[in-house]
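User: Predict the structure for this protein chain, please.
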Amino acid sequence: MSQLQPVYINILNTLKEKIRQARIKASVAVNIELLKLYWEIGNTILELQKEEGWGAKIIDKLAIDLKMEFSDFKGLSVRNLKYMRAFAEAYPAFSTIVQPTAAQLQSPNNQKDIIVQGELAQLENTTQNEFVQGTLAQLSWYHHITLLDKVKDIETRLFYIRETIQNGWSRDAMVHQIEGGLHNRKGKIVSNFKNTIAPQQSELVQQLFKDPYKFDFIYLGKEAKERDLEDALTTQITKFLLELGQYFSFMGRQYKVMLGENEYFFDLLFYHTRLKRYIVIDLKIDEFKPEYKGKMEFYLNLADEHLKQKDDAESIGLILCKTKDGLVAEYALRDSSKPIGIAEYKIRELLPENIRGEIPSIEELEAEIEKEYEELKSPSQKKYETLKEKLSQLKREEIKQTATTSILFEIIDKSLVPLYESLIKRMEDFKEWFYSSNYQWPGRNKNITTIPQLTEHWKNEEFLRTNTNLFFSYRLNGLKKSSTEAYGSGFQLDFKIDTYGYSFTLINYNNQQPVVKKLYPEQLSTKDIEKIVDIVYDFVMNDIERDIERLSEEK
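Assistant: Here is the predicted structure, written as C-alpha cells:
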C-alpha cells in the first residue's frame, strides 16, 4: 500500500457516502439496497486490489475506518467485507440489477411467480445477466454468504438460488437441500410424463419429482413392512413435505375410495396446488416390479373418477420403491396412458437383529468412554474437578445484583469519568505529533465539549435503557511527519452494560475480548484504571509505530 494516502482517502470517503445514501432508501427495498451496497463495496475492494496492487490487509483497514464512522452498522466486519468481495467476484453483472416494484416486494406469491410463471425451459434459456437482474436480490444476504461457502460451482449455485426462491426456503432448509444433493436428484425420476402430459407442462412436472428421495429422518429395519414405512413418513410429515417440495398438500394416508361394494386405499394422497392435480403415492418396501404399474393405473382411474374436479388436471402416480432397475421401469411405463413416475427412496436402517448382540450398547459405550476419560485426566484436571464439586456443595447464594439506574449513574460518576479523563491526559504524549485530535461517543451532541457534559448526557434513564453498549472513541488525526492527513491513530473503548455486570473492550485488541469485567455494584479501582490506560496506550503506540515503519519503507 505504498501509494495508499490520496487514493485510499478518496475511496474511503466514496464508500462512506454510498453507505449514507443506501441507509436512507425506502424501507420496502431495503434488501435490494443492502445487496447493491455490499456488491459495490466488494467490487471496490476488487478494483483496489487489482489496480493498486494492494493485498488482503486493505480489508482490515477498511473495516476499522468504516466501523469508526458507522459504529452502529453491524455489517462492516473484516469477515463480512471478504464476503462482499467474493459476492462481487461471483456476480460481476449484479451492478445492473433491476429493482422490483413495491407491489412485487410486498407479495410473497409475486416474488415466487417471477420464477415459476414460465416453463423450466425458459429459466434454462435465461442468460446469466438476466438471471442476476431479476433473481439474486430476492434472497437475503444470509442466504448468499451460505451459498458462497457451500456451493463453489456457479451453475449449481444458480440452481439452488432458483429453488430457494421458488420454494420459499429458509436458510436452514436451503442448507438441508444442498447437503442432500438436490441438484443431482431433481428431475431424474423415470416417468412417462413426456408422453402423457401436454408439452407445455410435461417438463415442469418432470422437474417436480426426484430420484432418489432421501428419507434420512426415519429408521427402519430389514424386517420393516410397507405400513411401517407409511407410519414413519406420516409421523414425520413436516420433513416428508420438505423433501417432496413446495405446493404439495397432504390429503391423508390409507385414503379410502369406494367402487361399488368394494373399498380401496391409497397409501398416501397429496394435492399439488399449483398443478391442480392429485398425487397418488404407492409405497413399496422392495424392488420395483412391472405389476406395480398396473395397480397404480387402477388407482389413478379411481382418483380421476371420484376426486378430480372440473378445474383439476389428470392425477399423477408416484411409485416409491426400495430399489429399481431403470430399464425395467422404463419398459413398464412404455405403453401406459396414465402419468406415472417411479423413484427409489433412501432411509437409515437399524442394525440387523443377528449382529445387534455382537456390539456394545449405547450405555456400555458411554461407560467405557467415561472410564477412559477419567484415566486420561491430568493431576491438575482432577484437582479442578474436586474443587468444582466442593464449590457446588457450598450452601451459599451467589451474588447476583442486577443493573439499576442508581448503580449505573454511580458507575458513570466514579468509574467512567476518572477513566476517560485519565485516557485523555495520557494521550497528551502524542498530540504534538499530529495535526489535531478529537473524541466521540454514541448519539454525539455538538453542544457537549467536555467529559462532565458527556456524563450528564449519559445519566438519563431512557438513554441507558436503549443504549447498553456505549463507546468512547479518541482520534489523533494527521501524522505531521507523513506530510499528509492520511496517517492517523486512536482507539475505541466499548463500555457494555449487562444484566449482572459491566465490561470494557478495546476494539481490535486481543480479538475484542473484554479488558476488564466487573459485577454490580463494584467500581473501577485505581489499578483497574491504570491497567486499561496502559493497554490503550500500548495499543496506540504500536499503531503509530506501524505507520512510521510504512513511511520509512516508502523512502
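The chain has four domains: 4-172, 190-352, 360-391, 405-554.
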